[in-house]
What we know:
Layout: H1 6-14, H2 22-40, H3 47-59, E1 63-64, H4 65-72, H5 76-88, E2 92-97, E3 100-108, H6 110-130, H7 136-156, H8 162-167
Antiparallel strand pairs: 1-3, 2-3
Amino acid sequence: MTSPSPETAARAARGTSVEADLGWALGVVFRRYAKAATDALKDVPGGPRGYQVLATSIGEGPKRQLELAAQLGVDRTVMTYLLDDLEKAGLVQRQADPADRRARLIAPTDQGREVLCDLERRLAASEDAVMGGLDDGERMVFRMLLQRIAVQADRIDPLHNACSLVEEGVDPADT
């Protein structure tokens, strides 16, 4: 990535260019990341949501279907269809919950674990492409600062359920 010209840097420092606008910068970076991540996850049933289900079921162990839906902010009906597709692909399986035979636990399959490793490599490559202009130290600082801002923003205006935003006509990517 090339450095901005002295004129562009001066305008940005004065706040007189679009590059100085936080909304523009966040939008451009998010759009680039979303495209790269969507491409990396194109083979997963449900795309990014399918990835989140798989990653959560592996990282946190089997969870009840309704708990998983609530944690990920996915409508329970949508979660049912998503799990059907993930199960057909051999990535997760529904197991009876020993504590409540009416409930189902969502557990990864061995194939699901292998697929998740591949997906994580693809996502890492996508992140590298997006943050290619930063060295490792700058990436670490960027992530740390962005996470701090995100946690604070979520405390002020939490996103409880992305599906409810869609029902209201709001694109979750715009929140």
